[in-house]
Design a protein that fits this description.
The protein has one domain: 3-Layer(aba) Sandwich (Rossmann fold). Helices cover about 30% and strands about 25% of the residues. It has ten helices and 14 strands. It starts with a strand and ends in a 10-residue tail after the last strand. Bound molecules: adenosine-5'-triphosphate, iron/sulfur cluster and magnesium ion. Magnesium ion binds next to helix 1.
Length: about 325
C-alpha cells in the first residue's frame, strides 16, 4: 500500500548549506497495519511524515528516494493531486485538535462538509455516517454533539472528533503526529484502543508518531526507531520490545516519559547536530557499547524494511 524507499529530505537543497534531515529512510505499510515511529525531539519524525504528504516548508525538499502509494509515485505527484489525496485517501492527525477544527462551524457541519467534498452522499446519509463515526470514537450522545462547536468539547473529546474526521472517508493511510501527547494517560489508552479497532475495521494503515516508546507496546504492529534522521532499528513490535538489538532502542525502553517529553535518564548527552554529524555512527558519542570502530565508520543497515538495525555491535537476540 505504501512503500518508502531510501527517502532523503533536505534543508536548503542544492545550496552549500544543504543539510539532510531525513537520511535514507525505508519502510512499508500494509492495509490495517499500525507502524509506530519513535525517537527523541529533532530525530526527523515529523519531517519524514510531512515528506510523504508534501507538507514541507519551502526551504525543505525531498532530494532522494521514492514514495509509492497504491502504485502511484508520490514524489512526482503535483500539488493539486496531493491536496486531493490528503482530503480523501490520506488523513493527518496533529497534536493540537484546534488546528484541524473550524471554530465557527459546528462539528456536524464540518463533518458533513468533509464527507460531501469527497463522496456522493445525501445530506441525511452524511449526517448519519458522521453520527456513527462520532459514536465509534467514544463521543457520548453523538447526535446532540453534532450541533456543538469545537470549544464546547474537552481536550480529549476534541481530539476524538479529529480522529473521527480522519476516519470519515475511510482513508487508506492515516498519519498521526504526537496525536495523544497532550492528553492524560487514561484517555490516551482509550483512544489508542479505539484507533486499533478502527484500523482493523476499515483497513486503514496507520503511521503513529510519538516520542514515547512505551505507548506503542500493545498498540503498534511494528516499530521504527529514528535517530539523527535515520532509521536505526525497525522490527515487529513484539520482537522489538522482547529483544531490542540497537543500544539506542534499549536506552529508549528504559526511559521515563515526563510531561510530554522523554527524559533519557540512563543516557548522557543529546543527539548530534545534523549539520555537524560525528564521522562514524551518529549515536557513538552517547553509546555505552561504542568501540573505536564506531567513530571511524558508519554502520550499514543490516536487514530489510521489516526487521533490521544499524549497529556494528548489536545486543544479543535473546537477553
Ligand atoms: N522548518 C524548519 N526549518 C529548518 N529546520 C527544520 C524545520 N523543521 C525541522 N527542522 C529540523 O529538522 C530536523 C528534524 O525535525 P523534526 O521536526 O522532523 O523532528 P521530530 O523528530 O519531529 O521532533 P519532535 O519530537 O520535537 O517533534 C531537526 O533538526 C529540526 O531542527
Ligand atoms: S555502531 Fe557502535 S556506537 Fe553505534 S550504536 Fe552500535 S555499538 Fe553503539
Ligand atoms: Mg515532530
Amino acid at each position: 500500500m505504501l512503500k518508502v524507499d531510501n527517502l532523503v529530505t533536505s534543508l536548503h537543497p542544492g545550496s552549500r548549506d544543504q543539510v539532510d534531515i531525513v537520511r535514507s529512510v525505508s519502510f512499508s505499510l500494509e492495509p490495517g497495519q499500525i507502524l509506530g515511529v519513535v525517537g527523541e525531539s529533532g530525530s526527523g519524525k515529523s519531517m519524514m511524515a510531512y515528506s510523504l504528504i508534501d507538507l514541507l516548508d519551502r526551504k525543505i525538499a525531498i532530494t532522494g528516494g521514492s514514495i509509492v502509494f497504491n502504485g502511484e509515485d508520490l514524489s512526482a505527484a503535483k500539488q493539486a493531486r496531493m491536496r486531493e489525496l490528503r482530503g480523501n485517501r490520506i488523513a493527518m492527525i496533529f497534536q493540537d485538535p484546534m488546528v484541524a477544527l473550524n471554530p465557527v462551524l459546528t462539528i456536524g457541519e464540518q463533518m458533513i462538509e468533509a464527507i460531501q467534498a469527497h463522496r456522493r452522499m445525501s445530506r441525511r446519509d452524511a449526517e448519519a455516517h458522521a453520527i456513527k463515526t462520532l459514536a465509534r470514537v467514544g463521543i457520548p450522545s453523538p447526535e446532540s454533539r453534532m450541533s456543538a462547536y469545537a470549544h464546547e468539547f474537552s481536550g480529549g473529546m476534541r481530539q476524538r472528533v479529529v480522529i473521527a474526521i480522519a476516519f470519515l472517508n475511510e482513508p487508506d493511510l492515516i498519519i498521526a503526529d504526537e496525536a495523544t501527547t497532550a492528553l492524560d494517560v487514561t484517555i490516551q489508552s482509550q483512544i489508542l484502543a479505539e484507533i486499533q479497532g478502527l484500523a482493523e475495521e476499515t483497513g486503514a494503515a496507520i503511521l503513529w508518531i510519538t516520542h514515547d516508546l512505551s505507548l506503542l507496546s500493545g498498540f503498534a504492529d511494528a516499530v521504527m526507531v529514528m535517530y539523527a534522521g535515520q532509521v536505526i532499528e525497525i522490527a515487529p513490535a513484539d520482537r522489538l520490545f522482547g529483544a531490542p538489538r540497537h543500544p539506542y532502542t534499549a536506552a529508549l525502553m528504559r526511559a521515563v516519559p515526563v510531561a510530554g517529553r522523554t527524559r533519557l535518564e540512563n543516557l548522557e548527552g543529546v543527539p548530534p547536530s545534523l549539520a555537524d554529524l560525528p564521522p562514524g555512527c551518529a549515536f557513538a558519542p552517547r553509546c555505552p557499547r561504542a568501540q573505536p570502530r564506531c567513530s571511524q565508520n558508519v554502520p550499514p543497515f543490516e536487514g530489510d524494511t521489516t526487521l533490521g538495525w544499524r549497529c556494528f555491535f548489536p545486543l544479543e537476540e535473546t537477553p
